[in-house]
Design brief:
globular; 540 residues; eight-stranded mixed sheet; Muramoyl-pentapeptide Carboxypeptidase, domain 1; alpha+beta
Length: 540
């Protein structure tokens, strides 16, 4: 039971056959059942892979159904019509990956990594499809793909508990993700961690081979071991970590550039000592696994990351207090408040001078101007939005696989950019402001669970919001706030005063920011509106 519970806490990844890459492996579509209509197929597909809720499948749900079709079409690069045309149905009928296209796991796909540079693996059992020597060779070569491109080394052990335990099984195999028979899910693997973390399972109902006549074990294993090392799927069709299976020549196989960058971002460049790949089989018994943060999202930085703090360059208050200052984005990281305008970043801490930095100094190669931003301090992540994409930086290093499309947040296809965003880690919700509407994304149900006109829900505000964030007053004691002791409001009618002078209005007219929960109400976000001419505290 303990293993099963831990497994539910893992980010689960799988790798399967798809239509355009010799599925099953002869390229045939999965036919409809005798009683299944195309609309039923589509609804089942969208529920499984695009989180269409059961309520959306009921009556008066045509609009929701259409939006989900559009979301799916956009993901696959199809013509976005919202209708079940032939190309859309062809994709839906194809064998495919069992993981949702917009995953049910955390929106950041946060990876953990192994702490050691020498990683052990063990084959628990063997497939009867191949001689054991052929299986050993395919597995060793699959690990060699990754060791040749990084500082990692791999060592095979024959007993005990290895970092990566490899097994062949069919159907229910004592984890939460039973296999589904031949021609569908091929294998799955888990991110680095204790217990089941890092382990790779291969579906014994498939026919495994060392060539193109059946499912090539080397290619699938190399992909799965990428997950075991902490890599997520890539959107690059040429990448090994692309989520679909297609046969490639395995002779002298070289890791594609996208995958190489990913593994090197986690583990560094190869050294002379690591270019030889895996070591010979060993009889060493290893009793424990070591990792940075187990199976939970890593809170450590990548090897190239630095702390998300601005350089210690202070600036005069009046430089930060330009009359025409317009805020593009704002967020709180620990006790620091970041205000972003064009390419400039203003940073303020309690009782300290304002620090001036730049977007390029803090987040290299991030395009400007930035539309919106929020932070996940527990993961050392800053998430920046521009246009229809978002970038996730760990320290000042861009995370592997980014930028990604904002459709991952389940926003309607009509949303092309974000005006403002605020994150609430206590309830795992993210509030988006888009033109005159708001959308609340729930990271637990992975849905937009609340939406409507800004003016109706937040009459304190106007129709458009420029920036928003949550302030934890525990980090800003009243005597240390930007304003006076009686007035802790930091985003004031005189916009730049949040970086400069105390506010002198009647404190009795201002509500105090709060981080407490009342029913389904979330902590207070502080909101900046058009050209910073108005601010308000609102409950969401």
């Amino acid at each position: 039971m303990e293993t099963l519970f831990r497994a539910f806490m893992l980010i689960f990844l799988s790798f399967v056959l798809v239509s355009w890459s010799a599925p099953v492996p002869d390229g045939k579509e999965i036919p409809l059942s005798e009683t299944e209509t195309e609309e039923q197929l589509a609804k089942k597909y969208l529920k499984a892979f695009y989180n269409m809720s059961s309520r959306s499948i009921g009556r008066n749900a045509n609009s929701a159904f259409t939006e989900k079709i559009k979301e799916m079409q956009k993901f696959f690069g199809l013509n976005v019509t919202g209708t079940l045309d032939n190309k859309t149905l062809a994709v839906m009928k194809s064998s495919r990956c069992g993981v949702p296209d917009v995953g049910n796991y955390n929106i950041m796909d946060t990876n953990s990594k192994w702490e050691n540079s020498v990683i052990t693996y063990r084959l628990v059992n063997y497939t009867p499809d191949l001689p054991s020597a052929e299986v050993d060779k395919a597995i060793a070569n699959a690990f060699g793909v990754w060791s040749s491109a990084s500082s990692l080394k791999f060592s095979k052990i024959d007993s005990g508990i290895a970092d990566i335990m490899i097994s062949f099984a069919s159907g229910d195999h004592q984890d939460p993700y039973p296999f589904d028979g031949p021609g569908k899910t091929l294998a799955h693997a888990y991110y680095p961690g204790s217990g089941i973390g890092g382990d790779a399972h291969f579906d014994e109902d498939e026919t495994w081979s060392t060539n193109a006549k059946a499912i090539n074990l080397f290619l699938v294993a190399a992909h799965e071991f990428g997950h075991s090392l902490g890599l997520s799927h890539s959107s690059d069709p040429s990448a090994l970590m692309y989520p679909t299976y297609h046969y490639a020549d395995t002779a002298n196989y070289k890791l594609p550039e996208d995958d190489m960058k990913g593994v090197q971002a986690l583990y560094g460049l190869p050294t002379d000592a690591t270019t030889k790949g895996t070591t010979a089989a060993s009889t060493t018994t290893v009793q424990t696994k070591t990792t940075t943060k187990g199976n939970q999202p890593s809170q450590t930085q990548t090897t190239t990351a630095t702390s998300t703090r601005a350089p210690a360059k202070t600036t005069k208050a009046n430089e930060a207090c330009r009359d025409n200052m317009s805020i593009d984005a704002a967020f709180v990281f620990g006790d620091q408040i970041y205000l972003i305008t064009n390419g400039t970043v203003w940073v303020k801490q309690p009782s300290k001078a304002v620090v001036k930095s730049s977007v390029q100094t803090l987040w290299k190669n991030m395009p400007t101007p930035i539309d919106a931003a929020y932070a996940l301090p527990a993961q050392n992540l800053v998430v920046l939005f521009k246009g229809s994409q978002y970038w996730a930086f760990q320290g000042n290093a861009l995370r592997y696989g980014f930028p990604k499309d904002i459709s991952n947040y389940r926003l309607p296809s009509s949303v092309k950019k974000i005006d403002a965003v605020a994150s609430f880690q206590e309830t795992r919700t993210i509030q988006f402001f888009v033109e005159d509407k708001y959308y609340r994304f729930n990271d637990i149900s992975y849905t937009i669970d609340r939406t409507g006109p800004i003016a109706e829900r937040y009459p304190e505000l106007g129709k458009k919001v420029d920036a928003a964030f949550q302030l934890n007053v525990a980090d800003w004691p009243l005597c240390q706030a930007f304003g006076s002791q009686e007035h802790p409001m930091i985003l004031e009618a005189d916009c730049p005063s949040c970086l400069c002078s105390p506010h002198t209005d009647d404190p009795s007219t201002t509500k105090r920011p709060s981080s407490t929960m009342q029913g389904d109400r979330e902590p207070v976000p502080l909101v900046l509106e058009s050209q910073c001419d108005k601010s308000a505290e609102v409950q969401v």
